[in-house]
Design goal:
By secondary structure, the protein is α+β, with helices and mostly antiparallel strands. It is built from 9 helices and 15 strands. The strands form 6 sheets. A 4-stranded mixed beta sheet has the order 10-11-15-14. The N and C termini lie far apart (100 Å).
Length: 379
């Protein structure tokens, strides 16, 4: 009897992608699996056909050969006969979906499992804005697990070499036969490593590591921002029984400053100035985030909220030679605790002004709008 078209068997179009192909196969495999259809020969046959079709269509080279030559590609020495459906291994073909059906019992097909890499660690570090501006060298102490000195990280008493696992003969995998196909899974005795220790180290309990506090020197580059992450490769937790260590990630928290406010590479600063300086003009001296001073010229008639830009006086841009700018926002301060003479002088100024607001353009403009509003309400 002629074989069914593989695409028809899985119920997909010829242009179907890998995900769609796998999804269709998984649905059929679960539907016709022998364990769910005990004694049903028809279901068993459909299960075999689905496995055979998927074994070809999941492989790009086999699929290309099938699309060109059909079933002949895998018969009588055809282009795909070397690894085609005629040599189908149910343990290999079914492993792609067995994980999803039975919770991963099939496992991978790569032999011994590599030792588990150590966990990554996180360290939160607070720095000042000045530290972020200049950069700094910091020394930190990190609680972590390190290699056991007694067993040299092997986990075995006296640093003895591990021996081959008897359960899997050192392969890290064990096989179990279920019906007409074989399932391969990770060896539960050695956890896939293929090796076991005969006598565990008394100091570390066989893990090959102990808890210690490690001291590290860290370089904080100039220009870092709040939330910057610094990675120290290999400075994380030591892996089990000599496995590679994880990494250490340092998360920086730039503390708020009493005077400066940072926005990216720019620095903002609100500076109060006397009313006389704002009215007559003058100059003020302001601090910079780098620890220096800068002189700002205040033109006469300066109003509250006016900003002055100091180029290159902001924060350094990380890993460049550039700097942001500094913005000075002035706040005109109304004098308080005036002496009698000062009050008289201000009163004289008000008389000379004649009640006009020509010296106060913002006030004049505001009350002009108020007058227009009142006139509109009367109409």
């Amino acid at each position: 009897m002629a074989k069914r078209d593989y695409y028809e068997t899985l119920g997909i179009q010829r242009g179907a992608g890998a995900d769609e192909t796998k999804k269709a196969y998984r649905k059929l495999a679960m539907q016709h699996h022998p364990d769910r259809n005990a004694g049903d020969a028809a279901a068993e046959q459909k299960f075999k056909e689905a496995n055979e079709a998927y074994d070809v269509l999941k492989d790009d080279q086999k699929r290309a050969a099938y699309d060109r030559f059909g079933h002949a590609a895998f018969e009588n020495g055809g282009p795909g006969a070397g690894g085609g459906a005629q040599g189908f291994d149910f343990a290999t073909g079914f492993a792609d979906v067995f994980d999803e059906m039975f919770g991963g019992a099939a496992g991978g097909r790569g032999g011994r499992r590599r030792p588990a890499r150590g966990s990554d660690l996180r360290y939160n570090m607070g720095i000042t804005l000045e530290d972020a501006y200049r950069g700094k060298q910091a020394r930190i102490r990190v609680p972590t697990s390190m290699g056991c000195e007694s067993c040299k990280g092997t986990g075995a008493e006296g640093a003895a070499a591990p021996v081959s696992c008897n359960a899997c003969d050192g392969s890290g995998r064990v096989r179990a036969t279920q019906g007409f196909f074989t399932i391969e899974r990770t060896c539960p005795n050695c956890q896939g490593s293929g090796q076991v220790i005969e006598k565990a180290c008394r100091d570390c309990g066989g893990s090959g590591r102990q808890q210690h506090e490690k001291t590290l020197d860290v370089t904080i580059p100039a220009g870092v921002e709040d939330g910057t992450r610094i990675r120290l490769s290999g400075e994380g937790e030591t892996g089990m029984r000599g496995a590679p260590p994880g990494d250490l990630y340092i998360f920086l928290n730039v503390k708020l400053h009493r005077i400066f406010h940072r926005e990216g590479a720019d620095i903002h600063c609100r500076v109060p100035i006397p009313m006389t300086t704002a009215a007559l003009g003058g100059s003020i001296e302001v601090p910079t985030v780098g620890g220096g001073k800068a002189r700002v010229t205040i033109p006469e008639g300066t109003q509250t909220g006016r900003q002055f830009r100091l180029r290159g006086k902001g924060m350094p841009v990380l890993r460049t030679t550039q700097h942001g700018d500094m913005y000075i926002e002035v706040v005109v301060e109304t004098p308080v605790n005036l002496s009698r003479k000062q009050k008289d002088m201000l009163g004289e100024f008000a008389k000379v002004d004649g009640g006009k607001r020509s010296n106060s353009p913002e006030s004049e403009g505001f009350f002009a709008k108020v007058k227009e509003l009142w006139d509109d309400l009367r109409d």
